[in-house]
Design brief:
Length: 140
């Protein structure tokens, strides 16, 4: 399984995987905002030429916001999400002083992965994705 960046700061690095990623993201997060903009990076994990996981982040005013992370159910529990957290943190250090993200109350596995990678829970001044979310922060 290979983790690779397919989009960076408005530049498509791998057009085939990028198009597959967009199609997959629109299907999984149907009805959500389009997150494929210039101030973002996107990575995919590929197994046998098929995207089995992906993640993204955006950069704004020294803050890296993790957006969209998904792992195919058959591949969960293999450390893929943790790998995706680490690659986003490593990249964010080039542009940002902190990273923030969120998950739902019932997503214990994601919360545990964030804790294992140094994130701490926090309460933002404005709950930017909703009151039902748990927010996390890590200084870089």
């Amino acid at each position: 399984m290979k983790l690779q960046r397919v989009y960076s700061q408005g530049l498509v690095i791998n057009s085939t995987l990028y198009e597959q990623l967009k199609t997959l993201d629109y299907a999984i997060f149907f009805g959500c905002n389009d997150e494929f903009k210039n101030n973002r990076d996107w990575w995919v994990v590929v197994d046998a030429r098929k995207i089995i996981a992906y993640c993204g982040c955006l950069y704004s005013e020294g803050i890296c916001i993790f957006i969209r992370a998904w792992v195919n159910a058959r591949y969960r529990g293999k450390g893929i999400q943790s790998r995706m957290i680490k690659v986003r943190l490593k990249t964010a250090k080039q542009y940002c002083y902190t990273a923030i993200t969120y998950t739902t109350h019932n997503n214990v596995h994601s919360a545990n992965n964030l804790f294992k990678n140094g994130f701490k829970m926090y309460i933002p001044q404005q709950k930017y994705v909703g009151k039902e979310m748990i927010y996390f922060r890590k200084d870089l």
